[in-house]
Amino acid sequence: MEHYNMNLKLRIWRQKNKSDKGGLVDYKVENISSEMSFLEMIDILNEKLVEENKEPVAFDHDCREGICGTCSMFINGRAHGPWHATTTCQLHMRAFKDGDTIIIEPWRAKAFPVIKDLIVDRSSFDRIIQAGGYISVNTGNAVDANTIPIEKNKADNAFAAAACIGCGACVAACPNSSAMLYVSAKISQLALLPQGNPERKTRVLNMVSQMDKEEFGSCTNIGACEAECPKEISLENIARLNREFAFASLTSEE
Amino acid sequence: MAFNSKIPAGELEKKWEDYKSHVKLVNPTNKRKLEIVIVGTGLAGASAAASLAELGYKVKAFCFQDSPRRAHSIAAQGGINAAKNYQNDGDSVYRLFYDTVKGGDYRSREANVYRLADVSANIIDQCVAQGVPFAREYGGLLSNRSFGGTQVQRTFYAAGQTGQQLLLGAYSALERQVALGNVKMYTRHEMLDVVTIDGKARGIIARNLITGELERHFGHAVLLCSGGYGNVFYLSTNAMGCNVTAIWKAHKKGAYFGNPCFTQIHPTCIPVSGEYQSKLTLMSESLRNDGRIWVPKKQGDTRKPNEIPEDERDYYLERRYPAFGNLVPRDVASRAAKERCDAGYGVGSSKMAVYLDFTDAFERYGNIEVGKKGLDNISKEKIIELGKDVVKEKYGNLFDMYAKITGENPYEVPMRIYPAVHYTMGGLWVDYELMTTIDGLYCLGEANFSDHGANRLGASALMQGLADGYFVIPYTIGNYLADEIRTAEIPTSHEAFAKTESEVKSRIDQLMNIKGTKSVESFHKRLGKIMWDKCGMARNAEGLKQAITEIQALKKEFWSDLKIPGTINEFNPELDKAGRVADFIELGELMCKDALDRNESCGGHFREEYQTPEGEAMRDDENYQFVSAWEFKNESDWELHKEDLVYENIKIAARSYK
User: Fold this and answer.
1) What's the complex ipTM?
2) Domain containing B519 — which CATH number?
3) Domain C-terminal end among A54, A74, A105
């Protein structure tokens, strides 16, 4: 792969705190290597800002290997930027060329208020899990792991849904700010496994109710969430959620 | 100060059972009155928080991330070991115990490791019950693979995302307890000191990272589950936020630090590509099940890998270690890669890399698929294609990650890999009950020193984190708290809280008031370089002495020329990082001191002065068969205590994988 260096113009959302109005600020970075990761490019900008006695850009990031779900930048109008199935931290500068302008914003959603600059509060996601995204099994209660065989394709589909990293890109990409892909991934994982069966109905009803309470928007089958999901969580999960929800609503004994 | 490992008497196989049968209990109504503070919510912290809350204790859990689901346990790829013997290949609790002690180069405690192996099977049961989607065979039963340093298949996995799935299991159990009101969760909070009253841990001072405010939190006991300190090397496979601060503060308050210099360098990571590099990415050890490691036989060979014929390749691990081949333990594989690169056989533009090649696996799996599907007259290309599909199912996410980072397609050209800092076996010294040398202060998971000796085997970190949290601490903490039922909640207006908070505050003020010229990042990078060059994969007395002098000078410069933008009472990541780097600098000095003191080579600690003519590590059991437990006395001043290691059930031998 051919390496090259580039100069870039950055337009970055700066917002001092939750109550500040915020706005886009222009910056320039020079000699950025095509081999760098996107966040390493931001590191270089921040080092420069510290040197100039300016406040560095605050952004969420941690593992930098695409699995913790912390990083969350809206880059040139796309959640996690231009590469398919890629988190911001795994996006590399090969995706850009010399002279490009890059606009970087935080996730935008009512349920994800901005804390500072590019950092948003995603605790609403945790509260949705608290509403039922678990199997109620206390430590020590389990039977031998091979007692219940699980069809391989069901186990594989449960795994594919469980691959969700909870980054919130689905919400950011959705014009309605819906969290359906996130919620459906957890519901699917547990609905596909026999262990999830006893709480199947209450889980879907409670999680959906919490999702609404957090003021996420509703799903109108646009599909932007699936297109931008870094872990390629499938829309089929939303269909499954809808089936689970209908089934639970119609047959609930409560 | 107490320094007793409290290993129960009796036969090895019965120690834990006996302990559990006789340990003191706390009755349910008293549990409700006892509060436990837990710092860190990775595998160890989340599993402990959930399990203790289920028992009825009142738990407060803290993490610096925005959600407990982000802890770095999530990045563990390859798998988790358990002595289930589902494969009928001769595995047993004893074998897992034996492999772990041998893998750790005979520097871990027999009783702890045996307990770990003993509870390993329960962990898999618990995780499956929680809905963790482990890989399965067509018959619906759980699948296993092999990891380094073992000759059985005992590793359970979920593609290359095992840590993620296990953490999400523990996280869901934790969130369930949050919903039930048994756990109060504090995210974006960082612990900055332990509060002790009459020699007992009674709470912490934490900083709210959004507002910058300091908070006081009381607990009848405090659990530190804050992970490893590999980021002392700046570049490592750890997440950017991983740090030593929680355990370092405890160390300075009196908790001994065990084997600080035992660092694991993982053999298969993506090589450094430039000066701007912020972290290194691991390629799971599981890849060594199917990938073969090689370098050209000719020094400085510039041909492309696919142009080098088979007989001009040196599969050096298979050559040197025929019994274990590519699956030798991590320390052995790392040193062998360094040896080849230092001798001029390295590949890639930096020449600091070796190949990890899957060509044989593509063909082998392709042929199996042909057989399974009953296909005839198949071209070699088609076979390879079928084989690639199988490899993709096993390791697809790792191959994708490699492609994104390097811009190369690992299905077409072999991966280039090089060792990188990955895990720290050292950590706070704990006794059999996981209690540190401070009463009521416990340490779990990677943050403690126990179980892995001088080298950890692959797929054992997840096992240990969950063993500590799910199956050890729920029993051992009762033994302490049973005597605390008469201790009422201590109000945080107590002078000990006030004093500790003011110490924390003055340190933060001091950092902010340096107003120098250099960024935190620049100091961290310089510390990392000293550590990697002189206390990394190979160490010698001369280099370690230099490193200590250099670190002391760096510390002085840090405290006189550091620049932190912004203010204290706001979200200020630069300030957070400054506190962590200040602690890393102090830790770096202790690591070098420990490495200098240990005049032998064992596991990940390789002292160049102590090696065989073939370059293998030379242990000195006569003089160094002990745990180094360091007591903090004063700045740059520590006292060494030794816990002798006694092996009653394993015959100590030279560790050979030939």
Assistant:
1) 0.98
2) 1.20.58.100
3) A105
